[in-house]
Amino acid sequence: MTSSPSPTISAPALEMRGITKRYPGVIANDRIDLTVRPGEIHALLGENGAGKSTLMNILYGLTRPDEGEILLDGEPITIKGPSDAIARGISMVHQHFMLVPVLNVADNILLGAETMANRVFLDRDEARRRIRELGQRFGFDIDPDETVGRLSVGWQQRVEILKALYREARILVLDEPTAVLTPQETKEIFAVLRRLAAEGHSIIFISHKLSEVLEIADRITVIRRGRVVGERLPADTNEEDLAELMVGREVQLVADRGESHPADVLLSVESLAVGDDRGREVVHGISFEVRAGEIFGIAGVAGNGQDELVEAITGLRRPAAGRVRLGADDVTMADPRQAHEHGISFVPADRHRFGMVTSFSLADNLVLTDYYAPPYARRGVRDDAAIAARAEEAIREFDIRTPSATVTAGTLSGGNQQKMVVAREFDRDLRLLVLDQPTRGLDVGSVEFIHRQTVRKRDAGTAVLLVSAELDEVLELSDRIGVMYRGKMVAILDGPTASREHVGLLMATGGHETPEGAPQGAAAPEPRRTGA
Amino acid sequence: MRSRSIALVGLAVVAIIASACSSAATPVPGLKIGLVTDVGTLNDKNFNQYSWEGAQAGASAIGAQAPQSAVSSVSADIAKNIQSFVDQKYDVIVTVGFAAGSDTIKAAKANKGIKFIGVDQSPCLDASGVEDPTFGCKGDAAALLPNLVGIQWKEQQPGYLAGIVAASISKSGHIAAIGGTAAVPAVPNYMLGYASGAKSVKSSIKVELQYISPAPDKAAFADPAGGTAFAKQLLAKFTDVDVLFQVAGLTGNGVLQAACDAKIYGIGVDVDQFLSTPDTAKCTVVSAEKKLSKNVSDQIQKVKAGTFKAGTAKLDIGSNDVGLSPFHDSASLITPATQKLIDDAVAAMKAGTLKACDENAFGGCNIPK
Amino acid sequence: MLTGLFDIPVLGLILQLLDFLLNVVTVNGPVILSLATPLALGAMCGVISERSGVVNIGIEGMMLASAFSAWLVASVAAQAFPAEPGFFFGVTPALLIGLAAALATGVAFSLVHAWLSISIRADQIISGTIINIVAFGVTAYLDLLLSRTSQPSGGKFVAFAPPQALLDLPVIGWLFRMVLAQGPITMAAIVIAVVFQVLLFRSRWGLRTRAVGEHPKAAETVGIDVIRLRYRNVLAGGLLAGLAGAWFTIDFGTTFQTGMTNGRGFIALAAMIFGRWHPIGAFGAALLFAASGALGTAIRTTPPPGQLGEILISIPEQVFSALPYLVTIAVLAGVVGRSVAPAADGQPYEREATH
Amino acid sequence: MRVDLRTPLARARSLIALPAGAILLAFIVGAVVMLVSSPLVTGHFDPSLPLRTYAAIVEGSLLSVNALVDTVVAATPLILVGLAVGLGFKAGLFNIGGQGQFLMGAVASAAAGAALAHESPIVAITLSVLAGVLAGAAYGFIPGLLKAYTGAHEVVTTIMLNYVGIQVISYLITGPLRAQGASFARSPDVQNAELPAFLNVGTGHEAHIGILVILVVVPAISWLLYRSTTGFEIRTVGANPDAARYAGMQPRRLVILSLTVGGMLAGLAGAIEILGVSGYMPAAYATNVGFDAITVALLGRATPGGIFFSGLLLGALRAGAPLMQVKAGVPVQMIDLLQGIILFFLTADVIVRFVFRVRAGHAKLDELQTVTRSYGSGTGKP
User: Fold this and answer.
1) Listed residue (A424, A262, A432) closest to A355, CA to CA
2) Tens digit of pLDDT for each residue in A21-69?
3) Labelling C42: which of A368, A412, D76, D165 has CA 20 to 30 A away?
4) Closest-CA distance of chain C to residue B128, Å
5) Given an 8 Å threshold on Cβ–Cβ distance, is C253 in contact with B254?
6) Minimal Cα distance from B222: which residue of D?
7) CATH for D16-37+48-358, among 1.10.3470, 1.20.1070, 2.40.50, 1.10.10?
8) What is the DSSP string of A189-234?
9) Domain with CATH 3.40.50.300 in chain A
């Protein structure tokens, strides 16, 4: 893009021209142009898998482009690796923080850009001094000796930004920086970013969240399927426009989910308290009910206890207190097998970790939770014919694109893998369907398919518990919406009438007038460990 | 590409089979002598190695072709190796070590036409001629298995002589012997003889008898570093010990190393260690020898000469099959008085008036509780 | 002065035991330290490699191969360059050449391990197993063949002789005897442990090593070449294993014997774990394991008098031989505190950002 | 996807292409080593030495009934312990403890055999074998339990237990189990518990009935892994422990089960060796079966069928070793070396692919990915 819509006259700090990167079978980046000016916050907007990360990995030297060139201050350069990028003033804050949890803040920041007392030894005193100074300059007070693993996610992100500043980065790339933040933390980080931009740093802000992009960016580049499909100034655009660019057609933000006909209460959760892996309580006495034939959506910023709640209901995690009932049955202490046999189906958030075995055949994966029971097995002996028949049926019914049922599941596309999980979990005699981020990272077609299937299950009288970090997904599908904030259910709203703004506010503040989580002193940071 | 590798494999197979068939023929005149080692290696500076040297010497003495060795790397190899020599129609098979005893008896029983020489073995048979599971040894091995001779030694005799030397050269009156393990009779035999020899010179002498390992394992016989460490520890505790007798194979070579490091006297075992382990020659005063190589060689020559005598050959000082090595550089340490003590003891043992230790029915030493 | 208390039931027994332990350790300090040397060096080979994320169970094989080449090369060199032992540690050109050969062998074997586990991302435990099997096979094979020719040894380093006045000092004289009356490799091991400990936690290399072992991706994103750092560390580990091997044949002893490391590489592995992947900790664990062996020996050779002696003698001596292994299992199981490996230990690193 | 469209024959070829290539390359490297060292073997440079060596191995392991009997007898423990290691791989575990489990089985069956030496053979054999199996199982159970409940990594615990096992045996055989009257430390004769020979060709090469166990065990383990739901669970835990938990399986139970069953197999092998081959247990019983079995399991890609054939191959090498020494004068350690090199080329399959231009399917064991994975992850608790 040579004709920039920006009125700024300063020369571009960074230009990427005609960047192309091909992987077997896909073109991740197709002749992408990107121009970033000094002091500009430039948003790179696109769906998951649109090619944003590839582009940034190329900029950072983690991946080599097949074609195209990169110009820094008008000079063409080649970036051979991260150290090369860093040396040229380009730094990156990755979506999954690149911090070593067991090391302290200072060591994490020093790593790779060590301040040396002599040829061999580090000068930690000097490093601490510089870190404190930098932090104060950008409005936060950080303890360089705190172990990073003990910091909250928001503070970890500040460490990441400090890392970049310590390296005197002029161009700072942030990949989905708000994905794991609370709205309050997001606000704080935005303040930091604005300050950085004011000091002349260029910031590339990667996101797929329209509202954030509109709030923070000076300029927005939208990419779709590896191509730049448009550039906008926030003043000249709106969410609908950006969404259309991003997804490639007019998106109906509210899908037709029909009317629900809820019946009796099926799932009832009473004062449920759940601890995390380290034994700290992260779900504090939650109560709610889901009726047969309704979709109960749980909205909330990721990391507010949703995962633990879902794992407690599906038996993967033992609750610390409270009760979970399914109809007349007490399933509080059920293990996954018992939960399954009570008619609970679960589509987990991380399908590669929980939902499937990539080295197993599609057929084996389709019976992963039912393998032990008739018709797939009798008295401990598998019935391969029945398993094969089941696979054929599921492939047909759920439109799983595969050459056969015997291929290993790992060779399927993400969408087809999720269809496989959905086929297994939806297509059985079940009472409660628990969906945790069921469409994360999927293409639009698969998303629609899964949403349709979900509504169908509801209409068939199944109780559905839907957890999603995508507020839009929750709003789109839910008959009722519970909002989780810091391990508590702060509100339960009627789905069709809930307003986006209201839910968003609840997610961000928990319903209090003044948002909690005012800046915390670095001396006593909230000891919350990231899941990354 | 595929055809290339198939051709390669095919060629190899043909070549191997062809050479296997061709090499099966061509008989060589004279006795074919094979040696099966105990678990370990051939160069163990111990039974395996000196039996092997004996087999070589014996073969050349009778003009037979050079003997062949088969090393046993695990316990199960011993029987397999013996069988392999049997299959190849060897005439004399030497097996080394007490652990090979059972397999040697079995093979000797099944192959009466082959002569077996069992080093450090004493065939113990029941009346029916199989190995006696109760170790009563009621059967007459010489009659039941006329093709097997087990060689054993009265190690207590050279041990006794070494004890005389040790007591005579010790200034502190405190000496020690370190054995690999008490679980192998030869070791306590040496050591108990050593103790009584020393006491015969000076009844007040203090003698430390210590064993490195409870079992005849690697630590006992194949761990020189462990032997050095054990000896150093002993010497650290008894700082006045000034003569150290090793009865622990390769582990014992480490013991001699420790003696050298501590600048005290060492006494070698089995062979003349002044010659066999030159690294520690400077502190090796003498060695308590059994003439292993010579005895194996003798047995082979007896086979050739037709004087082969089955049963257990318990070799002793009477036939000079055990004794002390030359003193080499240490000759000046040996006073005429000491030499006389040695000569007298040898004469008395030969005459049968002196027992080197509390001997049991099998010619070994009774181990005191 | 404590002996008066020895008659008190139970407590008296414990006091007697402490007295005995103290006695064993003081008397045998130098032996314990020299026996700990190959364990400590082997363990530090493990530390340096695993701190960067490469599991190394091939220490045993690396030590064995190095012991063999130190012996063989020193022996050949002694014939080529005959020389009188020098003043310091009885050094001769042959010994130095042998030492160099041991180090080179350690590096060569660790290069194989590095290539397999870093470059082609093979399972690191299998790679270590290969090292062990090949090292044993090749040394045993050659040793047997070489024994058919008579091969005099190339001699050995001798222990340093500190001034007697130093050793006679009250109380600390013992310490001087323990540390100074040692061969060069033992002394080097002490120095290496201290230097390595300081470097690991205070130098750029140490920081990077720890980061790579915990979170290689994070290290890569700040411009650290994970692959190169791992290679370097594994090869440096090979140097340490080589030094440990040389200890067997040109420092503590003079001859090579098939399989002579006799499982000490695996005790080194145990020391590394027990020492919680710290150089000093590993050294301490090695000392402890060596002391455990010395204790077993002391109980048999010179048991303490009285009831304590009876109790100790009634313990099968195999218990003391098995102690390092049992302690390691207990540590791993968290019975005696927990020892946690670097987070990325054993995981191959793939450089290209995956999509 | 591609694999699926091939004919079974092509699949079979792709399965054995890499192992076969690795073996061939190892033999070539071994030949080079022999060639270089031939002056030390025969006193002069001898280009025919490698050929004579391999010829002797082939003759001693294949070219006669006796040779074949030897091969099968030598292969039996390798296959059994190989299955123990392979089963571990399937469950995502690296069982280096085959050696210790084998030895425990051996000593237990020796003890039982000695105690039952005068019972009827059926009773004596049955109970002695059982004792070995149970002892092996117990020795596999320990690392399983430690792994399941404390996260202690099985690689380290099993190595440690191997060495502990040596000391246990030293204690037992020099102490309570020592045969009275025997001149050296060994257990008493098992007498009636000895496994009878079913095929005795009258030449000292006996096939004892123990080898028939293979005909039962190999299909049984295969059935367990691929036909039973428990096997499905084991394979799931091995491939993805989190998914196994999600699917309602009990990873801890399966970890313990896999190592215990592995211990049973290794213990059985130990029992068969003592009752069928040696007849008693010496204090310094030496074996290398634990490490041989790792090669067997890897060469057989952890599948029972593969382990059967690779066990036979290594058994043949072991069976041919005596004749190799006798006829070619090459030290037995050449077999160890060959084995290490086979393992090397198996692991460094890039070399095999390069040399033979093999385009076979991915050879790495999927199961192995989980083996070292848990090594550093803190507890590694399933």
Assistant:
1) A424
2) 988 767 889 999 999 999 999 999 887 667 888 898 899 888 889 999 9
3) D165
4) 39
5) yes
6) D284
7) 1.10.3470
8) HHHHHHHHHHTT-EEEEEES-HHHHHHH-SEEEEEETTEEEEEE-G
9) 14-247, 265-509
Are residues D343 and C140, on separate chains, in Cβ contact within 8 Å? no
Contacts of D305 (CB under 8 A, 6+ apart): D218, D222
Instruction: Give ipTM to 2 decimals.
Output: 0.87
Q: For residue A344, what are the β-bridge partners?
A: A432
Residue window 64-83, chain A: list those with CB within 8 Å of chain C.
Answer: 81-83
With beta carbons under 8 A apart, name residues in chain C contacting B279.
152-153, 155-156, 254-255
d(CA D167, CA C324): 12
Q: Which segments within A365-462 are labelled E, that is strand?
A: 377-378, 381-382, 432-436
Return the residue matching tokens 């930690």. A124
User: Which residues does chain C have with pLDDT short of 70?
Assistant: 1-4, 148-151, 336-339, 351-355
Residues of chain C positioned with their CB less than 8 A from the CB of D167: 318-319, 321-322
For A54, nearest residue in chain C (alpha carbons)? C355
Q: Which CATH architecture has domain A14-247?
A: 3-Layer(aba) Sandwich (3.40)
Angle between helices D289-299 and D65-90 (to 10 degrees): 80
Q: How far apart are CA C53 and CA C228, in angstroms?
A: 12
Task: Identify the pLDDT of residue B5.
Answer: 55
Selection from D127, D105, D126 nearest residue D260 by Cα = D105
Give the best residue of A80, A100, A114 to mutate against chain C (max C CB count within 10 A): A100
Give the chain D residue whose CA is nearest to the CA of C262.
Answer: D163
Residues of A in contact with C220 (CB under 8 A): 62, 82
Of A256-270, A305-319, D93-107, D217-231, minimum mean pLDDT range = A256-270
Taking the Cβ of residue A102 and every Cβ of chain D, the question of whether any pair is shorter than 8 Å is answered with no
Give CA–CA dist B48/A437, Å, rounded. 71
Predicted confidence band of residue B26 (pLDDT cuts 50, 70, 90)? very low
pLDDT score of C352: 55
Give the residue from B279, B283, B284 with the most C CB atoms within 10 Å of its CB, the best one to mutate: B279
Q: How confident is the model at residue D52 (pLDDT cuts 50, 70, 90)?
A: very high
Q: What is the pLDDT of residues D246-289, one digit of tens each?
A: 999 999 999 999 999 999 999 999 999 999 998 999 988 999 99
Class of domain A265-509: alpha beta
Residue with tokens 């000593």: D107
Measured CA to CA, the distance from residue A149 to residue B172 in angstroms comes to 65
The answer to whether A149 contacts chain D (CB < 8 Å) is: no
Domains of chain C: 21-174+181-339 (1.10.3470)
- The mean pLDDT of chain A is 85
What is the pTM assigned to this prediction? Answer: 0.89
Neighbouring C-beta atoms of residue C227, cutoff 10 Å: 17
Going by C-beta distance under 8 Å and a sequence separation of 6 or more, which residues neighbour residue D214? D75, D76, D79, D80, D308
The residues spanned by each domain of chain D are 16-37+48-358
Query: What CA–CA distance (Å, rounded) separates A27 from A46?
Result: 15
As a whole number, mean pLDDT of residues B64-71 equals 92
Task: Please indicate whether, in this complex, the C-beta atoms of A98 and C215 are within 8 angstroms of each other.
Answer: yes
Domains and CATH numbers, chain B: 27-153+291-322 (3.40.50.2300), 156-290+335-351 (3.40.50.2300)
How far is CA A349 from its chain centroid? 10
Size of interface B-C (CB pairs under 8 A): 97
- Contact between residue D83 and residue D360 where contact means Cβ atoms under 8 Å apart: no
Of A504-518, C18-32, D230-244, D358-372, the least confident? D358-372
